[in-house]
Amino acid sequence: MVWDNAGIALKEFCDAILGQGNLSQRIYSMKNDRVAAVTGASRGIGRALAIALAKEDWAVGLCSRNQEQIQSTAQEVARASPAGAQHVLFQVCDLSKFYEAQYWIKAIVARFGRIDMLINNAGILGSRLMIEEYPHGLWEEVIRVNSMSLFCPTKACLVETMLRQGSGLIVNISSGVGHVGKARWGPYAAAKFGLEGFSQVLAAELYDRGIIVVSVNPEATRTSMRAAAYPQEDPMALKTPEEFVAKLVPWLRRLKKADSGKFFNFKEIEG
Length: 271
Description:
The chain has a seven-stranded parallel β-sheet with strand order 3-2-1-4-5-6-7, with helices on both faces. The chain contains nine helices and seven strands; from the N terminus they run H-E-H-E-H-E-H-E-H-E-H-E-H-H-E-H. By secondary structure, the chain is α/β, with parallel strands linked by helices. Residues 1-32 have low confidence and may be disordered.
């Protein structure tokens, strides 16, 4: 769903709750805006990131496969943004399909003129099973979704805007099992190992082209995916997505060219 079409009702809702009248009549200088694209933004870390960036007056493009959840996130982002609904675009799409990822990226560029930061957060867990028990179809789905939802928006973002700009930041959300394999993590771990390789290859290709690429491991965070992976764990003992993001966003501002291609754990960001 693109804001300018099916999102009109949501825009009117945001106008009303923010008490700002008709936001479409308000004028913003797009050359001064910072624009972020966040995948997997309907809940958890992606949702917290979108809201935190909006509070800092970033224009934000969001996507998810879940229409109800991404619309809810868009409402929260509009509430958080000083520019209100004017700086929010959301779309329901399957990022493992290139044409859908490209359509989303093109919509963001058409609306806001550029993308300064792409956060690749989308992914699925699969099942916590031993390899000999793993259903072939589910293994294939987890590898496909987690790999292609990384590749497709990244390629589209490079082609449609970042290479032309000669600048940008790509943040790939990783995991500890992308560095150290553990039992019963199967295709999720394999895909995260792939994310690390992808990040390093991409950073090498873009090193002298003005675009920084990093991967970040949030470590234990109170998300629905974490709860599914560790059902016996007390979620209240974990940091919230908002607490993770509160450390991540200011840290991202300090990244330099020399950081490109590196992997960072939350402990390094927190310190």
